[in-house]
Amino acid sequence: MLREQIFSDISNYPKPVNPDCQSAVAEYLEEVGATDLDAPDAPKRKIQRTNDQLFVALQGQKRREAEARAQAEHQAALARLNDGTAVLRQKKERTPVLSKGVKSKTVRPAAAPKRKYAKRNSSKAAFDEAAAIERRMAMISTLKSGGKIEQIPQKRCEGGYAEYQTQYTDIRWIGRVKGLVIARIQRVRSNTSYFVLDDFERYELPEPISGYAEEKQKMLTALLSKKLVLASDIDSSAKVASRTIAALAEIHDLDVYTVFESRSVHGWIFIMDEEKRKAKLKEVGDLLQALDFLEERKAKAGQ
User: Fold this and answer.
1) Taking 80 as the threshold, does the pLDDT of residue 218 lie above it?
2) Are 60 and 23 contacting, i.e. CB atoms less than 8 angstroms apart?
3) Any idea which of 41-50, 130-139, 191-200 has the lowest mean pLDDT?
4) Long-range contacts of 212-217 (CB under 8 A, 24+ apart)
5) What phi, psi does 167 have (nearest 5°)?
6) Phi and psi (nearest 5°) for 281?
């Protein structure tokens, strides 16, 4: 009857090697040599140790020296115990316990010195209030005249966030006390924001706009109306519509601004820059003068 043989799985993990044994084998092969199995009668071939084998041998030697040194120290300690010359560990003296009738005095840390705060100057507070009122009246005048107030970014504030916080407080005060609706606008592909009065006329879409590039002509028509195109009227997300509007602004050189409500996009509006409009009119006038000059030269040449 045949019996099936069962073999265990071969492990591919490296086996631990004893450095002493490996060093002894390498030393033997270096001194005596190895037998050639193809030619046993031939003299043994000596094999020199490699750098790895020398390193392993050095490790084994150091370990043997450390073991021998530890054993010698152990024997010396035992000898000192036997002849009574060993220095034993001294017990640490504990703090004596006081009797129950005596209360221990608790040492408390010294109190920190009291900070001296300067008294508030009433004239200084009145001066700050007057300056705030003057500053806010100037901002209200700028907003009502159709101007823009540049927002102070936090990273450009030299004295911490004081300037940014002051402007933010003024804007909130104007909206709460004076009842003005203020919006923050930012030009497309620009990092500069402005505060303006939100009196924009809303654009009524004749038909829905998806906001994708396929309907960029409809979006351009809505922007050229110079009315606020609400983000809620666009079928796509504000991120998709912003990409299409940014492409239109770059192609047609339009000053399109994103209108924010708090931190979300409220819509987009095309605001013509007056300086840029005057520059373009001047270019058109120069071009017309150049055409008239060419016509006069042609007429003189024909005569």
Assistant:
1) yes
2) yes
3) 41-50
4) 212/236, 212/240, 212/244, 213/243, 213/244, 213/247, 216/244, 216/247, 216/248
5) -65, -40
6) -60, -40
At 73-94, the pLDDT tens digits run: 888 888 888 887 877 766 777 7
Cα–Cα nearest to 211, from 244, 248, 187: 244
Percent of the chain predicted with pLDDT > 90: 6
Q: Rounded to an integer, what distance in angstroms lies between the CA atom of residue 279 and that of residue 275?
A: 6
Rounded Cα gap, residues 73 and 75, in angstroms: 5
Confidence of residue 125 (pLDDT cuts 50, 70, 90): very low
CA–CA separation, 35 vs 212, rounded Å? 83
Give residue limits of the domains in the chain. 19-79, 129-180, 181-272
SS3 string of the chain?
Answer: CCCCCCCCCCCCCCCCCCHHHHHHHHHHHHHCCECCCCCCCCCCECCCCCHHHHHHHHHHHHHHHHHHHHHHHHHHHHHHHHHCCCCCCCCCCCCCCCCCCCCCCCCCCCCCCCCCCCCCCHHHHHHHHHHHHHHHHHHHHHHHCCCCEECCCHHHCCCCCHHHHHHHHHHHHHHHHCCCCEEEEEECCCCCEEEEECCCCECCCCCCECCCHHHHHHHHHHHHCCCEEEHHHECCCHHHHHHHHHHHHHHHCCCEEEEEECCEEEEEEECCCHHHHHHHHHHHHHHHHHHHHHHHHHHHHHC
Residue 48 and residue 31: Cα distance in Å, rounded?
A: 9
In whole angstroms, what is the distance from residue 252 CA to residue 244 CA? 12
* Residue 23, number of CB atoms within 10 A of its CB: 20
